[in-house]
Amino acid sequence: MTEPQSFRDGLLAAVPTLRAFAVSLAKNSDRADDLVQETLVKAWDKQDSFQSGTNLKAWLFTILRNEFYSQMRKKRREVEDSDGVITARLSVHPAQDGSSDLNDFRKALELLPEDQREAIILIGASGFSYEEAAEICGCAVGTIKSRVSRARNRLQEILGIKGEGDFGPDAVSLQITTTISA
């Protein structure tokens, strides 16, 4: 443990060389000043861990270097968005619409004949090929293709889907999120 006054004097004496080292790492005087300040704060907080009689300057340089590399790692994960363009594009549509759409789809699926429901679930939800679905159902591949086609058409009728524009957010939500991100 060191005397607070001598530790403080050692910190102050090291500032010019710490700053020079920080400038060489950061290539920016403002960032270098921030690094030196952070180094001094950390050193002051951890002065109990400094062993008297060892090299204070080397200890401070180690703290500064570690802080610099920690900030660099952190910065790699960050995305600069000072004008808010990226943030504005991160808008999401309300989750309740998706839940409501899923409930509507489940109800429509229940209205399909058993063979069509089975075929569309095997192909669309379970990811089987037409050949695999035909084998599972014990029928011809053409029969499965026909059942899936009829099921899709019937689901579109039940759900009132006329085209791609009927998927996703409603017109009001789409207008709001498009206006925000423009």
From TrEMBL:
Keywords: DNA-binding, Sigma factor, Transcription, Transcription regulation. Pfam families: Sigma70_r2, Sigma70_r4_2. Residues 104-155 form the RNA polymerase sigma factor 70 region 4 type domain. Residues 15-77 form the RNA polymerase sigma-70 region domain. InterPro entries: RNA_pol_sigma-70-like, RNA_pol_sigma-70_dom, RNA_pol_sigma70_ECF_CS, RNA_pol_sigma70_r2, RNA_pol_sigma70_r4_t2, RNA_pol_sigma_r2, RNA_pol_sigma_r3/r4-like, WH-like_DNA-bd_sf. Belongs to the sigma-70 factor family. ECF subfamily. This is RNA polymerase sigma factor. The lineage of its organism: Bacteria, Pseudomonadati, Pseudomonadota, Alphaproteobacteria, Hyphomicrobiales.
